[in-house]
Amino acid sequence: MARPKLLPDNFTLCLVGTVILASLLPVHGQAAVGFNWLTNVAVGLLFFLHGAKLSREAIIAGATHWRLHLVVLLSTFALFPLLGLALKPLLSPLVTPALYAGVLFLCTLPSTVQSSIAFTSIAKGNVPAAVCSASASSLLGIFITPALVSVVVTNQAAGGSSPWHTVGNIVLQLLVPFVAGQLLRPLIGKWIERHRGVLKFVDQGSILLVVYGAFSEAVNEGLWHQIPLSALGGLLLINVVLLALALAVTIFVSKRLGFNRADQITIIFCGSKKSLAAGVPMAKVIFSSHAVGAVVLPLMLFHQIQLMVCAALAQRWGARDTSGEKRAAAREGSAAAMVRR
């Protein structure tokens, strides 16, 4: 039986189910303490496996394209925060202050890695450059995101600790396991490549654990009593506007700066997307526990919207590139036939 086109992917369904489960059966008390420890272990394992998976050769292959990487990083860490702040007077009345704090947090996050590379590949873009840009964005985000949050998110949801203390926590929980995985890559890298399903399981499983713990805490604090249904509709509109503006700007800038088609595709997909895999663990470290649920809600919604929109764009551009190659091959074949005559 074919899967309905409008049905979300399994991971999205699991996210929705996790939020529902946390709303009906939130973890609390001593169980919450043990669950928090389990979540920290899962997140550390996730970044360890990502470090072991990352190919140094692929990074070196794309690292020389500095103009492209600079445009992607500026889009990720400058354009998005500026859009979030500039649109705040217009869009913040549509949602609660806690939800808009989540929108601003979303704007500070690094780009995705797996989906940016996958969509770039489908659309016939510059895949080595996408690997480099997305990976660099993910690594730099460990340091840049906490600093941006301290400037952009002026809300009680943010934790009271200094940005440097936050960076230290993120380095300990995320970067140290990542570096350990990268150092052990010569020993376990081939095993990771052969068992990609393990990484996918840990990747998605750790996110679901963090989401369940975050929403449990938020529900215990009365999350759903504080967010009206109209605010969820407003949040959907805000996310659509943010993604549309990011796509429009990256398309315009990449063309204006004279990048070829393959590089334009890489800039668009790497510069317009935000990482759920990095964002959820970072929110857990940066924000106070009772605020994490409301903060990650905009990111979860944006994640699904960006996947749907970028998947459609990638399929369209990839098909256009393939049809162009076929026409060129047909022209060459006709020219060769005329020569033979």
UniProtKB/TrEMBL annotation:
Matching entries from Gene3D superfamilies are given as: 1.20.1530.20
Keyword Transmembrane helix in record: yes
> Does the keyword Lipid biosynthesis feature in the UniProt annotation?
no
Which InterPro entries does this chain map to? Na+/solute_symporter_sf (IPR038770), Put_Na-Bile_cotransptr (IPR016833)
> What GO CC terms are in its UniProt record?
plasma membrane
Q: Which domain of life is it from?
A: Bacteria
Q: What residue ranges are annotated as transmembrane?
A: 12-29, 35-54, 66-87, 99-119, 131-154, 166-185, 197-215, 227-253
The protein depicted here goes by the name Sodium/bile acid cotransporter 7
The protein's organism comes out as: Paraburkholderia bryophila
Highest lineage ranks of the organism?
A: Bacteria, Pseudomonadati, Pseudomonadota, Betaproteobacteria, Burkholderiales
